[in-house]
Write a structure and sequence with these properties.
Elements: H1 3-16, H2 23-30, H3 34-46, E1 51-54, E2 58-61, H4 69-74, E3 84-91, H5 94-103, E4 110-117, E5 136-142, H6 153-167, E6 174-176, E7 180-183, E8 186-198, E9 201-211, H7 231-235, H8 241-262, H9 264-272, E10 281-286, E11 289-298, E12 304-308, E13 311-315, E14 319-322
Parallel strand pairs: 3-4
Antiparallel strand pairs: 1-2, 4-5, 5-9, 6-7, 7-8, 8-9, 10-11, 10-14, 11-12, 12-13
The structure holds biotin.
Length: 323
């Protein structure tokens, strides 16, 4: 067990115990000295954990958890997604960092998280607002054994996972094609997939997910203040970011598994459970071209169907707005 794994294990053991956990038990479980345990406790306190120490009884974890890689991994025992957590105070973009790590051989399931992003990337060249200390900025490295076209389905996998993680907080979100997550018509989460591939083989996919969790409405910049929302605004309760992230990764792992073993059909069926635009008038923008019509649903490939002048057109990419 490396140093980091030992810290994760200490947090797991402290959480599992109902009162104090003895230093003896920690040292035996980890196979390290009592002094090494003490050093880890000091490091964990420096990370923001409130750990009480009693010479006769051992250690006890008080309420209030920090958001960091140790906390996340303590909630993710044995899972593929999150098997490696790269946690940063600040990055230009977690997608850019994950791309670089994947290029250098990082395994499937490694995730990158930052407290803040200085150049958070949105879809279609947009920017993703990423203030520090309140939201989630996450990128997941996936290595599906598929052709590039097959990776498109992962857009829907990520959308279903993000929708489920929001639903676990007690509000039902809607998906806006292809993968925005809305609550009451306002955007709560966005997804940006980036891929490295050759014509017939995907090397890796970076699934970047940004979720507005604890940001207050008056902290959004003016230009998105009417169109964005956050979970705290919708539920009235602050979100534990580590718990939210662990739920999201668990959902993502489940739906990724479904996608790999059963294909796109069950993923699309789950996605449709959150899709509310069918039958509604919409405007679709693709680069400098804008078309309006009525949304006629999505086809079996996940393409948006747009009814215009009595004809159905398939839309493969673009930005959709309700009219
Ligand atoms: C969108 O709706 O436009 C997509 C937004 C995606 C934002 C996330 S935040 C984590 C990851 N890193 C980035 O730079 N972008 C994605």
């Amino acid at each position: 067990m490396g140093e980091k794994e030992q810290e994760v294990e200490i947090i797991r053991l402290l959480k599992a115990g109902s009162g104090y956990t003895s230093g003896q038990l920690l040292s035996v479980s980890l196979g390290v000295s009592r002094t090494a345990v003490w050093k880890h406790i000091t490091a964990l306190r420096n990370m923001g954990y409130a750990i009480e120490a009693s010479p006769s009884k051992g250690y006890r974890l008080r309420e209030g958890r920090p958001f960091n890689g140790v906390e996340l991994q303590s909630l993710l025992a044995g899972r593929l997604l999150g098997s490696q957590v790269h946690f940063f105070d600040s990055l230009d973009s977690t997608n850019a960092k994950a791309f670089e790590l994947a290029r250098n051989g990082a395994p499937e399931g490694a995730v990158v998280i930052a407290e803040t992003q200085t150049k958070g990337k949105g879809r279609i060249g947009r920017k993703w607002e990423s203030p520090a200390g309140m939201n989630l900025y996450l990128s997941i490295i996936l290595r599906p054994k598929v052709a590039p076209q097959g990776a498109q389905g992962l857009t829907f996998v990520a959308a279903v996972a993000a929708a489920e993680a929001v639903l676990a907080n007690g509000v039902k979100p809607a998906v806006k094609w292809p993968n925005d997550i809305l609550i009451g018509g306002r955007k709560t989460a966005g997804i940006l997939l980036e891929m490295d591939s050759e014509p017939d083989r995907v090397h890796f996919v970076i699934a970047g997910i940004g979720v507005n969790l604890n940001i207050k409405q008056d902290s959004f910049p003016e230009y998105i203040s009417q169109t964005a929302t956050s979970l705290i605004e919708e539920t009235g309760s602050p979100v534990d970011r580590a718990v939210f992230t662990a739920n999201l990764l668990a959902s993502m792992e489940r739906w990724y598994g479904v996608y790999l073993s059963e294909g796109f059909v069950p993923v699309l069926a789950a996605w449709k459970g959150y899709f509310a635009s069918a039958g509604r008038p919409v405007k679709v923008t693709f680069f400098d071209k804008t078309v309006t019509g009525v949304c006629a649903g999505v086809d079996e490939d996940g393409a948006l169907l747009l009814e215009r002048d009595g004809r159905i057109e398939r839309v493969l990419s673009g930005d959709v707005e309700a009219l």
